[in-house]
Amino acid sequence: DQIEYYYCLTTLSSSDMTLMLLIPAEYVAASTMNIMNSTIRVVIIIMMLMVVLIVLALISIIKVQRSSQLVKIEQKNNEELNKLRLAAEEAMIAAESASKAKSTFLSNMSHDIRTPMNAIIGFTNIGLKQNPTPELKNCLEKISNSSEHLLTLINDVLDISRIESGKI
Questions:
Q1: Residues with Cβ < 8 Å from 9, sequence gap 6 or more?
Q2: pLDDT tens for each residue of the chain, 168 residues long
Q3: Count of helices and strands (H, E) across the chain
């Protein structure tokens, strides 16, 4: 009848008989195709899920690496900022020390210069009271004016030194 059949033979263990089963090929092929199509669909879905999972894993790994790099960069920047802060503090300490040394120097020098300047002014005034000659009187007046001017400058330096040290 031109129909293809698949057959299956099996021996029955309880008797000496063989069982033969005939199945038309069109039924076998149709069910095989259905099973194969279902299997292919399941495999494709599983592969797509695997690809999605791999992509998500890669994205997660990249994010972790980037955040790790950002943390390292932030740590490096913090270290550099700490170094700069320490250098700035050291510079401030050095500047304050230099300023104190300058103020102390100016104060000491001004006092050391003011004492002889007072002596010059005092002896010049004594010389002016001794009825000097007009030429000598002119010289003594110039000495007196210059020394008074110099004493004013020295007192101004002392005042600045006191202001810087917070005593005024």
A1: 18, 19, 20, 21
A2: 788 888 889 998 888 899 898 888 777 777 777 888 899 999 999 999 999 999 999 999 999 999 999 999 999 999 999 999 999 999 999 998 888 888 778 777 777 888 888 888 899 999 999 889 999 999 999 999 999 898 888 888 888 877 777 766
A3: 2, 2
